[in-house]
Design goal:
- With about 425 residues, the protein is of the alpha/beta class.
- Helices cover about 50% and strands about 15% of the residues.
- It is built from 16 helices and 10 strands.
- A hairpin with a 2-residue loop joins strand 2 and strand 3.
- Helix 6 packs antiparallel against helix 7 and helix 7 runs antiparallel to helix 14.
Amino acid sequence: MSGKDCFKVLDKIFLPKHKQNIENIKGNTIKYGNIVENGQIVDEVLVSYFKEPYSYTTENMCEINTHGGNLIVRKILEICLKNGASMAEPGEFTKRAFLNGRIDLLQAESVIDVINSKSEKELKTSINQLEGKLSREIHKIKQKIMDVMVNVEVDIDYPEYDLDEVTTAEIGKMLNDISFELSRLENSFDNGKVLKEGVKTAIIGRPNAGKSSLLNFILDEERAIVTEIEGTTRDTIEEFVTIDGVPLKLIDTAGIREAKDEVERIGIAKSKDIAKNADLVIAIFDSNKSLTSEDLEILDIIKDKSAIVVLNKMDLEQKIDENTSEIKNSCKNIIKMSTLKEEGLEKLYGKISEMFGLEEINVDNDVIITNLRHKNLISKALENCLKAKDALIQNMPLDIIAIFLREILEELSNITGEVVTDDIIDEIFSKFCLGK
């Protein structure tokens, strides 16, 4: 519970073993006792006390640590609500921390990224943002602009001092510096998107080429049904796996062939659509058989995509290989595997890592943008930066250039929440779960 009355509510329901007035209880301490209702003990608990401003929300806070189990947790929650507490809105604790100035909006957004992280690198990036690494970068850029804006404002207000030449030189250097830094942040979003969303990877092939076997091999479990009967996979199967600290969203699809019924036809159409929109397509072929018309259709699908051709069943006699012209002309990334013998997985991982530069993503030293809202605002700031540079080259008046500089400052302030509308705040925190 958080808020000015949380200790009043607690006092009605918590009976500590050693009773003290709230004024005498130190913050950041724990007391042992019982939650009671109508004189009856509901549970034996530990209660943590946090006194303003030294809490997550900067308000008075308490945490009731109860025994596990849904029944007892629900019971204590009901007792809290009956005695004056109200249910938190999604993200309300973090929202209060932001509104009370303990964290900025960028840090608040990183809380949900920490919770939703699917890989170690994404988690590390989110924690870096929670600790203010990106916020500090934004503030440094803003400070460079504000240092120059002082002279710009003086020049506009007091033209008789004729500071144009000095001010123009300062603006030019500053714009070059911040355009470089904004471009670096904007470009980091490519890696950030990979860290946050993963590499959407479609596994396609004709029936019995080994798609489901490959998925099971990667996951090291029998996730997909594998039989000698063609057309077993009718719908997509989705799972996540991590390579070099980056998540891959694997999608096993229905085998591509002439459909035998309406259900299979829908599944095959879905397979083609997923392949079309995937970041990476793994096209798997039975190297023990000659290419069929379905195989040629698959090669046509991947021709202009980021793709890897997997020649499966390398343990058997080879009828197609990396030198088969149709394959070589459609894809340059070709590896041999045997899903039955469980051979070749490291080669596949190595090729994916190489294609997407996964090993080069340095989350320890680099500041990486993972949030589309932040990226869009940085892009707008960069656009205004380039407009200001053009205006400077064309010798436009300083008050025109100042307009672009103020726009940059506003867009960067929108990222950290110094200038932001209530609608945006509500939208951001609506994505949080209760109790965060």
